[in-house]
Amino acid sequence: MTSRARPVGGKLLSPSVQIMIALLGFATIAAAARFVKGLGATTSMNDGFPWGIWIAFDVVVGTALASGGYAMALLVYVFNKGRYHPLVRPALVTSFLGYSMAGIAVAFDLGRFWNLWRVPLFFWEWNGASVLLEVALCMFAYTLVLAIEISPAVLERWDADGAGRRADFARRWLPRLERALPFIVALGLVLPTMHQSSLGSLLLVAETKLHPLWHTGLLPLLFLLTAFGMGYAILFFEAIFSSHAFDRPLETRLFARLGAFVAGVLVAFLAVRFSGLFAAGRLGLTVRSGGYSFFFWAETLLLAAAAFLFLQQGVRASAAAQLQAALLALAGGTLYRIDAFLTAYRPGQGWVYFPSYFEILITLGIVATETVAYVYLVRKFPVLAGVTETRTKPVPAAVGQGVAS
Amino acid sequence: MARISRRAALKTFAAAGAAAACVPEAADARVERKPSPEDHGLLVDAVRCVGCRACVTSCREANGKAPDVQVVNGAAYDAPIDLNAQTLTVIKRWEEGKDAGYVKAQCMHCVHPACVSVCMLGALHKGAGGVVEYDVAKCVGCRYCQVACPFNVPKFEWAKALPRIVKCELCRHRYAEGKGPACAEVCPRDAVTSGKRGELLAEARRRIEARPEAYQARIYGETDGGGTNVLYLSPVPFGALGLPALGEEPAPALSETIQHGIYQGFVAPIALFGALSIVTWRNRRSAEHAPAAGEEESR
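^ inputs. structure came back:
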């Protein structure tokens, strides 16, 4: 966790950050309405679709987009690719923010949110069969682990401040964290392995409702692979936008080698999915399911195209192609997860769901909060490594950049 | 590229593999729930039901639920079209070719319920007599029960700021007064009968034998979805009544087998944690020294 990272500095309230804060204001009003009036009056969720975009996007997709820290820790600490070390800390920061925001989304979604505190504490009531309980506990624990993993960024800043109580505290704890690092990292790998796969397991029980192109015993493995694929893809996305927004050097060559690895993950996903369909005798459904076939092939082609572009990086590295590949992989993975939880979910009896303005506004507010927090952390704390001189007139952060985490 | 630590990576996978090897043995550890002839249940007979909806009204009274009033052209009707936050049982029309009739819907009180399997703190649980009970104090309102239930039974109070899950609990609050389910009490044609599961099965078989031309030669719920304590008789295939084809395995069997298989005794996660700790510990040094190399490479 030691690094040569330095704060980027620069103006905090750039125009795009101001837009984000305005969005956050509107979302707060929507949030107040949700808590006063209840879920029925503010959302499109219903007894057929009890889970909407707050679960399918904010949690299920959001934590996959926040898998960069998981993917990067695996590469650097387990596969021992030390050269990627400068990418670890920014990845952990976006992961921490992504998981925190997923937690906030859950608080909006839960009907009886005031009982949530019982879930981690009332261990004697835990139902060991509940996949959701495992997901909830793992996500909660992993968010804490991520906070510990990024704490050196704050401690280094305090240390650099010079004297005082905070500096003493930092100097006492930095070496301790250093020693505990292997165990924290290992925990930070086991927990997401568990709950990212279990996000897929959540749907195992809904066999009568989930379309057979999506329902398979392989759901946990497929969700784990999309977490990896999206986790690595988000790193490309973040690095390229950070370099643009904060005027940092591009790590195109470093990323070119990573591309082959990501391509392997994406190909593995497609191979597992198709062999599962073949084994179940469901390959025919891929062309005979009307709209579902369309979504199935959209996911497949997006991920296949991403894998192809990533593989090409081994031959000729190009930042533009890397960005395209990353976006394709993110789109494919996002679509797969949304489809599994919403599009391919068929509760029957004419139930329909499309998110309400409130739901969309609150989701946007959560993304905005995350972006503002990221910009703040990166500018004020040593997160990004190898910073060259910042320009006197900093380029405003791109609006899209925050969606990254 | 993969010059370093292939060995370390192999070790990790070997450890994970060893942990995974424990899985087949553990997979059998899923809790098996067998139907009990002593469990409380209902027998719903779609041949006898004439759709009078006395059961719907008495259910409301017994459970203190307000009528689900819809105003159509200025006239008010208590005419729920499905189970909802105020309606624990409902009568639906079915049509199948030339045949048509009515059928009652409510919680099936599964022997091995999906809602109970997925509930985080056991707000939904199997109570005395196999009744699937709800304890609001343990509910966080996650609505996973609604996702899991193949019968779409648990309903959520969407209209309330402080909501709860609502479903039939077989009028268990009336047992102390010596009363059973209100719906069965008022049914004028014995289309809904309450009793013990074993007795209800015997009665169902008696009815099929007495009029084999009128009934399907099968009792829905005897084995469907691992068995339910609410049993159905029908003049037409059960799909026409809106009852899903479930097979004999309980709905949560697959998820419990996979989940228990992976997490039995927490062996696999602990083994993975141990292996990753060792590998990370060994790789620690090179990861620390790497930033310089990484920075140079990036220029």
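Chain A touches chain B through 81 residues (CB under 8 Å). Chain A is about 70% helix and 0% strand.
thumbs up if we can close this ticket
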